[in-house]
Amino acid sequence: MDTTTHRHELGELTLSRITGGTGTSVVESLKDIAPDLAEWIIAFSYGDVMSRPGLDLRSRQFATVAALTAMGTAMPQLRVHLHGALNVGCKPSELVEVILQMAVFSGFPSAINALNVAREVFKDRGTTPGEKLR
Amino acid sequence: MDTTTHRHELGELTLSRITGGTGTSVVESLKDIAPDLAEWIIAFSYGDVMSRPGLDLRSRQFATVAALTAMGTAMPQLRVHLHGALNVGCKPSELVEVILQMAVFSGFPSAINALNVAREVFKDRGTTPGEKLR
Amino acid sequence: MDTTTHRHELGELTLSRITGGTGTSVVESLKDIAPDLAEWIIAFSYGDVMSRPGLDLRSRQFATVAALTAMGTAMPQLRVHLHGALNVGCKPSELVEVILQMAVFSGFPSAINALNVAREVFKDRGTTPGEKLR
Amino acid sequence: MDTTTHRHELGELTLSRITGGTGTSVVESLKDIAPDLAEWIIAFSYGDVMSRPGLDLRSRQFATVAALTAMGTAMPQLRVHLHGALNVGCKPSELVEVILQMAVFSGFPSAINALNVAREVFKDRGTTPGEKLR
Amino acid sequence: MDTTTHRHELGELTLSRITGGTGTSVVESLKDIAPDLAEWIIAFSYGDVMSRPGLDLRSRQFATVAALTAMGTAMPQLRVHLHGALNVGCKPSELVEVILQMAVFSGFPSAINALNVAREVFKDRGTTPGEKLR
Amino acid sequence: MDTTTHRHELGELTLSRITGGTGTSVVESLKDIAPDLAEWIIAFSYGDVMSRPGLDLRSRQFATVAALTAMGTAMPQLRVHLHGALNVGCKPSELVEVILQMAVFSGFPSAINALNVAREVFKDRGTTPGEKLR
């Protein structure tokens, strides 16, 4: 198996493991307008970057949720990665913690807006942050 | 012990545990111009938020490093929190992973600029990412 | 009355004075997913920060509207704070001035997008900027 | 013809040339709430800036599309300027290239979100990026 | 006096009133590389926008300081406008209030970084926030 | 030649063509702390993205300079890409035009800060924008 095939296959595996159907459908949706971007997401973002062994997937998803919350310009991606975080074993209450923490670093509006996405994701999954958070 | 004292003491404890001398000196430096901001950092940011039991400190620091890297407007704070991350047990190689991952979400410049801060932090601590990263 | 009660009561008072029903309903809406964030908004954002005597509430709302316009990532909060600004005595024409000024500092798109929110807020309140602006 | 008239007329000409009806209707929509902003868009943004002879309009639109994609806070304006880019002779496939390139500089989410706007613009115009992009 | 002369003269007056020598020297420094940008700052930013009668200069400077603090990408301009705010009668303690308030909206790092600029500006002017802030 | 070798070699070629020694030394400087990021810059950013045939290199550099100016968080990269733009045939006066145009989209501070970088780059190259710009 040459390296290109390897990157693609590894990326598909990690994409599927993290985002499940949600991520796959984002990638599919790009194929009409920018098939190479779809391929880069698989081979680069998931094959080269997210598949790296040096950090567990739960920590990777905490980092992604934090960054997308702080940026505030990527709500559709935040939704995908909250699903992704739940898929790799992050607990809803932990994701709420990551988002709340962003109130300190990027301000209360960024945390409030991200929680509104999280509420919908949790509802779609039939889950809740579970207990009073403190 | 009333709640105000509790918040302050809990905050001091967590601030000291995460940032050690670095964070304390930031807080001290604010006392001339905005003593109440210094107190909010202790009682709110560290007492109310960072001390919450629902997420371990390593994960909190991964989240903070990710967010500050993605924002790109808080290099002094990134430095403090890279120190903080090392203080609570994040490995240098794991912090490099978090920063590299941001190339996907906030672009290569954000990752490169954060790595340049990380290199200095690692040097100050006499540590390195240790091994070839992959 | 201990300090914690004081912060909460002061915060509720200022929240109610600035945002009226709008802000209260945002806070209420957070209680299912993050009750502590709801409490922080009251006790910290409004009790500790917005209640401080060193700056009048009109100036505080001009500052908030300016910042949220410039950031461009917090349209729901801009709406709440435009209402808040009107509640504490800012004139519609003054709020338009603050937003127009942001064309200089954060660019024309940020001003245009904020004006589109302001138009809706003014309409909801049955008010207008009133006169030709110059 | 005095300079003020000149700025306005030159601006109207360039606005019309770049954005056609779309830009004109944005300007019209501002006249109720901020007529002077509408005038600044014509006389300053299009008269003073976009009409300058030192750079061709295609390059100007590539620059605008790149900036609005990277900022991520100006989707309505991105839509207007994608139309504008097509109006001055940029090819759909070239606009996709500019957007894809932003994956490197401002991250994959910024590119994906901009492509979703581009897809709608291309559809409204009955055009496509035309060929497999590579 | 035709309108162009009027815009320029009005802009020079307001620029001088707000920023004094600091702003003038920024404008001067641009003349080698982009003389038209220098002119736009005078005629558009200060002549068209900042000179408008609908909002007092103190409120305008509160808005500008808030926005530049929240953006975090314009520290040299924040410095100029903190000077400008002091020039038009804002008190140091009021400027500290505006900056502290941004901790809520754009996060603690944005407030801390802006305070570090404010400290230098106050020092250059031989002033201080004067009293314990609360 | 397999695809991996091809991506790397193509990337090196384009990196060298655009950024010359400047870009190569950035890549080299990353090898101690994150050798894989260095490789991604070559194989992904320059091999996969910047080498694509669908857009000429001058247009690509206009887009990059526009985006980095608007973002305001990537001054070291703006410097590299201003050099890169000059290397692929953009004229200094054209780069000034792109930066000036950003005053409209991301605000005057973003344009002023970018011009200050451009002035240094032009000086390093012994060039100037050449003529009065209009």
Kindly describe this structure.
6 copies of one chain form a homohexamer. With 134 residues, chain A is an all-alpha fold. In chain A, helix 3 packs antiparallel against helix 4 and helix 5 packs antiparallel against helix 6. The longest helix of chain A has 28 residues. Chains A and B meet through helix 2, helix 3 and helix 5 of A and helix 2, helix 3 and helix 5 of B.
Short description:
The structure is a homohexamer of 134-residue chains. The first copy, chain A, is mainly alpha-helical and 134 residues long. The first copy, chain A, is built from 6 helices and no strands.
For the termini of chain A, the CA-CA separation is 50 Å
Biggest interface reads:
A-B, 37 and 37 residues
Q: β content of chain A, as a range?
A: under 5%
Quaternary class: homohexamer
Mean of residue pLDDT values of chain A:
93
Global morphology of chain A = globular
Q: Structural class per helix/strand content of chain A?
A: mainly alpha
By DSSP (H or I, 4+ residues per run), the number of helices of chain A equals 6
The tally of beta strands of chain A, per DSSP, is 0
Descriptors for this entry?
homohexamer; 134 residues; mainly alpha; 6 helices; globular
